[in-house]
Description:
The structure is a homodimer of 499-residue chains. Chain A has 16 helices and twelve strands. Chain A is of the alpha/beta class. The first copy, chain A, folds into three domains: 15-82, Up-down Bundle (dopa decarboxylase, N-terminal domain); 113-357, 3-Layer(aba) Sandwich (Aspartate Aminotransferase, domain 2); 373-497, Aspartate Aminotransferase, domain 1 (Alpha-Beta Complex). In chain A, the strands form two sheets. In chain A, strands 2-8-7-6-5-3-4 form a seven-stranded mixed beta sheet, with helices on both faces.
Amino acid sequence: MPKYEDSKEFNPLDPEEFREKAHKVVDFIADYYKNIENYPVLSQVQPGYLKNRLPNEPPDTQESFDTILRDVHDLIIPGITHWLSPNFFAFFPATVSTAAFVGEMLCTCFNVVGFNWLSSPAATELEMVVMDWLATMLCLPESFMFSGSGGGVLQSTTSESILCTLVSARDRSVDEIGKLVVYGSDQTHSMFKKVCKLAGIHPQNIRSLPTTIDDDFSLSPRLLRKVIEADVAQGLVPLYLCVTMGTTSTTAIDPIKHLADVAIDYGIWVHVDAAYAGSACICPEYRHFLDGIELVDSLSLSPHKWLLAYLDCCCLWVKNRDLIRNALSTNPEYLRNKISESDSVVSYKDWQLGTGRRFKSLRLWLILRSYGVTNIQNHIRTDIQMAVAFERLVQSDSRFEIMVPRQFSLVCFRLKPFDGFDSAELLNKALLERVNSTGQVYMTHTVVGGLYILRFAVGATLTKECHVVAAWEFITKTTDALIKECGRSSTKSDCLSNT
Amino acid sequence: MPKYEDSKEFNPLDPEEFREKAHKVVDFIADYYKNIENYPVLSQVQPGYLKNRLPNEPPDTQESFDTILRDVHDLIIPGITHWLSPNFFAFFPATVSTAAFVGEMLCTCFNVVGFNWLSSPAATELEMVVMDWLATMLCLPESFMFSGSGGGVLQSTTSESILCTLVSARDRSVDEIGKLVVYGSDQTHSMFKKVCKLAGIHPQNIRSLPTTIDDDFSLSPRLLRKVIEADVAQGLVPLYLCVTMGTTSTTAIDPIKHLADVAIDYGIWVHVDAAYAGSACICPEYRHFLDGIELVDSLSLSPHKWLLAYLDCCCLWVKNRDLIRNALSTNPEYLRNKISESDSVVSYKDWQLGTGRRFKSLRLWLILRSYGVTNIQNHIRTDIQMAVAFERLVQSDSRFEIMVPRQFSLVCFRLKPFDGFDSAELLNKALLERVNSTGQVYMTHTVVGGLYILRFAVGATLTKECHVVAAWEFITKTTDALIKECGRSSTKSDCLSNT
């Protein structure tokens, strides 16, 4: 077929071309990791920086690989906020590892579309094994494992995990959708409200219960019962409670057991969102934060946050796999096959939103085997140790104060109002902007209970204690300058608003 | 800090260790691609094959990288159904390329959590550029571009695209959720019903309009109008129509313009699901299948199917970006920053389900630049040419028949009932099982209009015409054997059911 062979000259997966280019990119990435401290952590570009430097249309013909890689270096890297920089202390860090990277390469390599068992038995079976392994590491009860009534599944995000479990709860309910009520605290992740609305819960029926600084922003079981009772008295139907173990703002810990005790009285589905802090529970000394987990219906935890996994990877365990399957299964003819029909295997498409899915468990399998549980526990402990060190530094400077007790590797603090500055918010906003604008350190803020608080989240994979110490020195030096300038300016608020 | 340095000996992202291991895996993968034809396409393992070969718990201490890679080879590869094999003709192929692979490596490398502009300006801006580039390639009207009122966003799956647009439509409606009605055909992807249920649409209000073989299984505008009118007469409120350009079973084409003309009369949101076939519209000779696209509200297309992109990558364009933002935006304090508040930039978290998101546009950028539009158009044409070749082979054998006109690179055919075999279904089932059980070729089936049909989907990236020809030879040889054996068996149905 000579005519045909000609037109097939374009071979986008020639193994030797693949080998050559992928090797080149490995070196590009290794060099990036090696030199990452040379870049400003927070990108310094202005909106629209890229559009003007790229053509309006894609090229008709191919460009050389070297040109493209050079553009990645010259055009893309300046627009990157370097989440992997050791000087990244913003949000929660997204942790990574060589093992996860090569696991991801293998996942990409096979490119299986693992909707059911037959589409690649290894993808389904390895995911089941790895989810059980992680359940063991977290000492989850057997009911969350495949040997029990439940099991685990990898989702992309916590939002997806909440959507899938919320809909499972909704679909087992016999009440009309307009009557269903869901519960969280004012510290529950913002996506909770969004996901509830997506699932058709009436916005007026989404309860966001207030927390206070006196309770360290954790959800009060007593308040929960009161609100539920008021709802029931109004003829509404309590459906779902999202308990957070380690909130996004301050890593507040909702008391799982006491909240579940309340929820059980009303037949409410209890989900525990432990996206960030759940990972700490692989260390025996932190496991008690999951006490009561045997009482809940589902748990999610994102290894891309603290288990070295790269994005995107959220573990969801459910106690009753029939409920999620009832809510999410589809059975189109073109996916039918004897083995799946025999019910002897799991069809993960029935545990998630979409149909297609990647072979993500390879990443977790590589992490657990490449490092072993002991190293991973120590990685958690080391991050927390560094946060403790930062906390002590803050405490050693009387101009600052710790705002919320530190639980894990996040320190919540602020510069105290001083010398006639009554707005702690303006002051800390100014400090934060000065710190971040240099690109030397990146940290973020939150507002809880009306208080503007600086967040210093330790745990980027490359961070060592020297980075934490240097960051603190930089923060205090910036504070010195800020105070000095404010002393000089005609009015103090001028100096703050100008920053 | 000597004490600390000790405990930090565990460095999961040491650049030189990264370099060494990633290079090793590049060679592993290049070799896999080189030898992929040596593996059975369809995995030959039995359910539970992996569980018994792995320990019940993760290791306490680290294992050697060579051991792990050996296990990938010995334990994982046998459980892979090789989607990238040139002998894979099942479902729709998932296409790949070196450019996308290295784009994915770079995406993983930076590991940015691109929820808003500031979290990595390059991630937001490159996605906007690339989505506009693809819109240009598809000759979409400007209303779907950022220069117009709309814009594009990368989602993981079509399901997510439909969920986001359905909820946008739902939330602009003022009617109660129980009254809202959605429309698709009986050929619309099975996830449509699932997504509608997720969004709280009452299952009784999900219309699945019948199609017939006489209309090549495309949705009839006349029928649509009739059903809508009946719904309106009953006091229901038509909300959303999913038009499919290239259905999963047979690549049937719903007439976009004529359906949109009907929908517009009732204020219905029209979404076009062009997951597979949309990619063909980058070739001028196929662009007419998108005629009328200017009338619809949203369009989705999955480059992981036919644009060489690897999983998971679904492009969604909307005509009115305010509507998706209204439905999906969140504004938690800890993500607030001056630039996003100024509304001068896009916050992609407000265009999707979850909060976190990966830098997926790198993959598409690498594809478009590494190959150029012309090569990518030719890749589409080449796949279709190969399907045409297969179609001719089928037509040349009078024992077979083409069941639905071929539109793109999928051929729907069957072995005709013969010689007293009145069940074409049993016969073709037997043939399919025999073909697939050998691992030499993998194809799948569907049932439409009560007909059991074999699907031969050409387009795996490594497939050349010689593979198509060999597959056909194998199918006919298997047919010969099947017929011969059936002739020998005491009853013909025995011989079929034993296969």
